[in-house]
Here is the input.
Amino acid sequence: MSIIEMRVPTIGESITEVTLSQWLKENGSYVEMDESICEFESDKATLEFPAEAAGKLIWVAEEEQDLEIGALVAKIDTSVTNENGAAPSSKEAEVKQEKKEEVSQKETSSKENYATGHPSPAASKLMEENNLSSSDIKGTGKDGRITKEDVLKAIEAKNQKTSSPKETPTKENTTQVVTSSNTFSRVQTRKKMSRMRRTIAKRLVSAKNNTAMLTTFNEVDLTNVMALRKKYQEQFVEKYGIKLGFMSLFTKACSKVLMEMPDVNAQIDSDTNEIIYHDYADISIAISTPNGLVVPPVHNAESLKFHEVELKIKELAGKARNGTLTLDEMKGGTFTITNGGVFGSMMSTPIINEPQSAILGMHTIQQRPMAIDGEVKIRPMMYLALSYDHRIIDGSTSVTFLVKVKKLLEDPITLLLDL
Here is the structure.
């Protein structure tokens, strides 16, 4: 018997532990070399773990288990082959899998077991975060088990509908407290925090405790920005294949002012008590995903054109929501923009994304009466919030930064002409 040990590989310099979020292959099943056998969830991304050899898979670790780098995950018995004494081809594997599924469907049609209609831990996490219940999803896994892929398909289908289903608590990890009335629910559900959620929590608390964070506010009149988009939108889409959105305009405005005001674009090295200045603007864009908030940066935003910024943000957002962002794509960032307005937020105080020193919060656009040249006019207004580290950025600097961004957005021609 020849046994190959599968251990957690080195993923990144700062990553010392991962969570086994989901097994992709059954215990005891035959796997081919380089076939993904499980998924790891790190502090920053979800990664697939490929088999190092062909043979019989033997589980060692369990789903939702925390594992240190180098820990034993599974074993592969390379002495085990398929029925013909050799590793099956991909076509043979497909036919074999189809037969297995047919037999499984026949067995489950006559008698369902515990797995039928129950989600895997990774699937359960996605279901709860997207208000989905087992009745909304048809499981395609073994014995009708709901897999992560099943939930992702259901989320996509849900987003295409105008109305979303009501949240139904999952059956797993649910404690029912009996009351004297059948009218009121007393259901409690416990679920372990994902590794990414735990990391986000630690970073937010760290930012609160380790920075002298303050927030300054202003408001911007987006009349001219909206007129610009309306006038040139069709031409922009025809030429570049993407719409001119608010994010590229805000990103370019911030990157221009950051180059003029290096303190807002800097960070503190606490170990050496030095200030690190950057001659580039890597703008991190906050993106909401089923697993939590991620902030991948758009590198050298100050040098990119508007359509290049839009395409990059679209690419990063798609990867973030599909869980395919790489660690390199998550690194860096000198300043962050977060847009709570897409969820209807009118005002907020965003938390600094350490080790950065400032973050800009965008909010919802509201039609409000404004005094313009002695007359009351209805204008599309947005509140802006700049949270900053007072250890490196003075109050006057923060206010000036926000005023400069406001002026560029209220007269976008100066932004386009680099005036």
In short: Residues 84-93, 106-112, 162-172 have pLDDT under 50 and may be disordered. The longest strand covers residues 375-389. The chain has three domains: 3-88, 121-189, 195-416.
